[in-house]
Amino acid sequence: MKKTLLACLLMFSAVFKLQGQVADFAPVGAKWYYSQISFDFPYPEEYHLVEVTEEVVFQGKLCRKIEGLTINCGLPNPSYVFTRNDSTFFWSEVAGSFEMLYDFGAEPGDTWLIQGLGLFGDSLRVNVEALGQRIFGTDTLKSWTISHLGCYDWGNEIIEKLGNLYFLSPSFC
């Protein structure tokens, strides 16, 4: 009996430790506030809200529904994402499949290809240059300095649980 109880406690301990290591990207209720310059004269700065509104089963996967993405965003609006291990996947309307968006386990020198972006299914190759940390209040989050090839802009940094300070997903030029 004692061995069984000890084995169960060790198993639960391992599960909780593993859960703490996985980046929980876009939990229900998460909100991002973005600003962008309008193309309408006199080019005012416009603000909009991107929000994770619910968890739903979409295309057979338990996903989080993200609403409020703009037309120049590489992801559809609404967008459906799920996280497996250290990777976050999004549903690509064009590809008709889930495609990797983030690799939160990437190391310097790693690359990944984001496929099925935008209206034409464009792709973006992400190169990880360096690892770092960012402090937000009392939280210290991992960050990845990146470079990328393609017609999309994604800034030069990805931050665990947040995405990027300027773009949630790659934005068309």
SSE topology sketch:
Elements: H1 2-21, E1 31-37, E2 45-58, E3 61-67, E4 79-84, E5 87-92, E6 97-103, E7 111-117, E8 122-136, E9 139-149, E10 152-153, E11 157-159, E12 171-172
Antiparallel strand pairs: 1-2, 2-3, 3-4, 4-5, 5-6, 7-8, 8-9, 9-11, 10-12
Percent of residues in helices comes to 10-25%
| Record field, number of beta strands | 12
Strand content: over 45%
What kind of sheet is the major sheet?
6 strands, antiparallel
Estimate the global geometry from the Cα principal axes: globular
| Rg (CA only) | 18 Å
Low-confidence stretches: 1-22
Mean pLDDT over the full residue set: 80
Spatial strand sequence of the major β-sheet: 1-2-3-4-5-6
What is the N-to-C order of secondary-structure elements (H for helix, E for strand)?
HEEEEEEEEEEEE
Count of helical regions: 1
End-to-end CA span:
63 Å
Structural class: mainly beta
